[in-house]
Amino acid sequence: MKQPVPGRVWLAYGGLHGDEQADRQHHGGVDKAVCVYPSEHYPHWRQSLALPLGYGGFGENFTTQGLLETDVCIGDIYQAGEARLQISQPRQPCWKLARRWRVKNLTALVEQTGFTGFYFRVLRHGWVEAGQLLELMERPFPKLTIAHANQIMHHDKHDLDSARALAECSALSASWKDSLWRRVEHGKQSMADERIQQP
Predict the structure, then answer these.
(1) Domain, as residue range, for 97
(2) Are residues 40 and 71 in contact, defined by beta-carbon separation less than 8 angstroms?
(3) Which CATH number covers residue 31?
(4) Burial 115-135 (b: 16+ CB within 10 A, else e)
(5) Residue 7, CB half-sphere, CA atoms under 13 Å: how many?
(6) Residue 179 CA neighbour count, 13 Å, CB half
(7) Residue 140 neighbours by CB distance under 10 Å
């Protein structure tokens, strides 16, 4: 669980100073430098899980207001203090979150609700501080909301056309591109095999 940090904090290209990730294969990295979680989701989790969840309870770096998954898009560019940030992908919560709160199916619940949060990559480093506004500067892919990306990745797994369209988004993280392209290629191969087996 993250704790609030008073005053200015340096946001580097790899993340917030003092909050570096040791396991860069699965956490952090350029495409996942800043983990964001909407404050609006906390009442739901407090009630449904009966846990005293405070802000930072989902391991996020930024707890935000007004940036819901249904409203923000892959590729959105925001100004935060001196830093400039770009949304790269939805968050995919790992088993550590479930272990932290001792809720075995918490990862599945997060995916089912769509209350995932998302990640920023850092386009320009700088000082940031709690309470600053996140100002939307650009929205190059207005149809690719975080909610839409979650729907494709976690629910509409047989919709290869949508998977391809999302994978072709230049602002999408490398790991999500790889996963979606594997799905598309596997789906194409499966359809080819079916055609070959038909009498």
Answers:
(1) 8-141
(2) no
(3) 2.40.33.20
(4) bbbbbbbbeebbebeeeeebe
(5) 2
(6) 14
(7) 14
Q: Is 110 a domain residue? A: yes
The H-or-E segment that residue 45 falls in is helix 42-49
Tokens for 3, please give them: 């704790």
Residue spans of beta strands (DSSP E) within the chain: 8-12, 15-16, 34-38, 62-64, 77-80, 83-90, 118-124, 126-129, 134-138
104 lies in a domain? yes
Each residue's pLDDT tens digit, 23-53: 445 556 999 999 999 999 999 999 999 998 9
In terms of Cβ atoms closer than 10 Å to its own Cβ (0-12, 13-18, 19+), residue 161 is exposed
- Does a structural domain hold residue 174? no
The pLDDT of residue 11 is 97
Which is nearest to 68 in space by CA: 90, 93, 98?
90
Look at residue 72 and tell me whether its pLDDT is greater than 90.
yes
Tokens at 184, concatenated: 């598309």
Task: Report how far residue 22's alpha carbon sits from residue 42's, in angstroms, rounded to the nearest whole number.
Answer: 27
